[in-house]
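Marked as duplicate of an earlier ticket. Keeping the data here for the record.
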Amino acid sequence: MQVSIVSHREPEPLKFEAFERLALFVMSMEGVPDLTELSIALVDDDEMAHLNEQYRGIGEPTDVLSFGCDDPCPTLSDEPITLGDVVIAPAVAQKNASEAGHSVEHELNVLLIHGILHLLGYDHERADDANAMAAREAALLDAYSVG
C-alpha cells in the first residue's frame, strides 16, 4: 500500500509520518489489497470551501471530503489500485477539536479514518449507517491507539 500526502498550506506543523502510519493501518484492517494507493491532501479553509461548494453545493469549509476514483478503477494487473483522495482542512479540525474538548491530533485522526471509510463504501446518510460508521471509526481508532 502506498500513501501520498500533500499540503497546500504553510507552515506545516503536522507529522506526515504519523498520518501515513494511521492510513496504512486503517487500510490494512479493512482488508485493502497491498497494491492500493491513497492520496491525502491538507488544505486551507478557502480551498476546502471551494471544494465543498463545487461538489456538495455548500459554500463554507467542511472538515473532510472524500473523492473515490471512478468505478471501476482502471488498472492493469500489475498496477496499483487507486482508492481515492481524502481532503482534510486542519483549521476546521482545530475548531472542531476545541469545541469537542479533545486534541487536534485526535480530531485529525478521526477525520482521516472517516475519509478512508467513505472511500471504502461507508456512509452516514441514514441513522443506522451513521451508527455503523461511527462504531467502525471508534474501533479502528481504539485498535490503532493500543497498537
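See parent ticket for discussion. Helices lie at 16-29, 45-56, 90-100, 104-119, 127-146.
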